[in-house]
Design brief:
The chain has a domain at 5-72 and 105-174 and 269-345: FAD/NAD(P)-binding domain, CATH 3.50.50. It is 34% helix and 24% strand. It contains 13 helices and 18 strands. The protein has helices at residues 13-24, 49-56, 61-65, 89-96, 105-114, 162-167, 233-241, 248-253, 285-288, 297-312, 318-347, 352-367, 370-374, and strands spanning 5-9, 28-32, 44-47, 73-77, 83-88, 101-104, 121-122, 128-131, 139-143, 146-150, 152-155, 175-187, 196-200, 203-209, 214-222, 261-267, 276-277, 280-282. Helix 1 runs parallel beside helix 5 (105-114), helix 1 runs parallel beside helix 10 and helix 10 packs antiparallel against helix 11.
């Protein structure tokens, strides 16, 4: 116990950020990842100013800001191309103190991985919680190669978290939202376009530029759980979105069937009683999986990591620190899970009278000024971490 040791289970964005932040606070950290390598499943991720300020704490905010590609106009559209609401990148940055950065998940994982020693991350290592620990005993994590004892275990093992199930066995776990998503990354079309999210009856589409000249596109629609198109997901996207405005048809034409990612959307709409037990803490999707409609899932995992390191790096008992972490994060993330669910219901309305009413309301609000549209992210994108930057620990 004198070694001040932490084990992080899961080498996704939240787990790697937690490892960096904990090392900066003096912890000896080992990251255990089930997958054979750090090749994240996914396409793009949007990091809002709240997550960028969290990354500032570990010295990675500015390298990510340098990857910002959104300049000028953007906003929400109808399938025929008519704008429902316009938003300016400069106005958003001014309101929230920084840009929104769209980047490929692998780019972010590479940046985070490079900030850790080569020996800190062990891939191909399945891990199970053997004991969450308590005030008078360490936590224990079992792997095929042996058991790890630690003062702190961080469960960043995703929406199907086995560690969450071990800590809270009676919790119902993630529920299907009724929606599925598709994601692709393709070369940018020849004809320019403004970044946008388009809302149609029962479905939505987003096209966002990346710094490297490619486009990250995502789609969402109501569907039965586990459904797949018999003739391929590209064919399904063409049926749902093929007649929508530019650049949607051009993006679909450039899409390789094998590169289309489809995933049903689940969320933890039933809140957990806490994000910790004993010496074990939950982080990211393991704690508060939410719909992607606010673009905050990864952002909240980054926030979690920085807040967790803040509380556990102050020298007090770990169980007490984790209680403070739960108290900090439960209200904020719970509110965002609920807000993302409400936004999903609004964005994917299917009844035409309801869609017409929604579009009229969004357009009316937009005409009063872009600030009113951005106001929906007040209290989200303007979040600030609880402590200033910490000097990086020398390996």
């Amino acid at each position: 116990m004198e070694q001040h040791r932490a084990v992080v289970v899961g080498a996704g964005i939240g787990g790697l950020t937690a490892a960096i932040a904990l090392r900066a606070r003096g912890w000896d950290v080992t990251v255990l990842e089930r997958a054979a390598g750090l090749t994240p499943v996914g396409a793009g991720i949007g990091l809002a100013p709240n997550a960028l300020r969290a990354l500032d704490v570990i010295g990675l905010g500015d390298p990510v800001r340098a990857l910002a590609a959104w300049q000028g106009d953007g906003g929400m559209r109808r399938p025929d191309g008519r704008w429902l609401a316009r938003t300016d990148a400069g106005a958003a940055a001014e309101r929230f103190g920084g840009p929104l950065v769209l980047l490929h998940r692998s780019t972010l994982v590479d940046l985070l991985r490079a900030a850790l020693p080569a020996t800190a991350v062990r891939t191909g290592t399945a891990a199970a919680l053997a004991d969450p620990g308590s005030a008078d005993r360490p936590a224990r994590v079992a792997t095929p190669g042996g058991t790890h004892e630690a003062e702190l275990v961080v469960a960043a093992d995703g929406i199907r978290s086995a560690i969450r199930g071990a800590l809270f066995p009676v919790h119902p776990g993630p529920r299907y939202t009724g929606y599925t998503t598709w994601r692709v990354v393709v070369p940018a079309p020849a004809e320019p376009f403004a970044p946008h999210e388009t809302w149609g009856p029962g479905r939505l589409w987003g096209s966002q530029p990346l710094k490297d000249g490619r486009v990250y596109a995502y789609a969402m629609a109501a569907a039965p759980a586990g459904a797949h198109a018999p003739d391929g997901e590209k064919a399904e996207l063409l049926r749902l979105f093929g007649d929508w405005h530019h650049p949607v048809p051009a993006i679909l034409a450039a899409t390789d069937e094998a590169a289309v990612l489809r995933h049903d959307v689940h969320h933890l709409i039933d809140p957990l009683p806490a994000f910790h037990q004993g010496r074990t803490a939950l982080l990211g999707d393991a704690a508060h999986a939410m719909q992607p409609t606010l673009g905050q899932g990864g952002n909240q995992a980054v926030e979690d990591a920085i807040v967790l390191a803040h509380h556990t790096g102050r020298g007090g008992p770990v169980p007490t620190a984790l209680a403070a972490y739960s108290a900090d994060r439960l209200p904020r993330t719970g509110a965002l899970v609920r807000k993302a669910a409400r936004t999903g219901r609004l964005a994917l309305l299917s009844a035409r009278p309801a869609v017409a009413l929604r579009n009229t309301a969004v357009t009316a609000v937009s005409r009063l000024g872009p600030g009113l549209v951005l106001r929906g992210f007040d209290g989200i994108a303007d979040w600030r971490p609880p402590a200033g930057p910490v000097p990086p620990r020398v390996s």
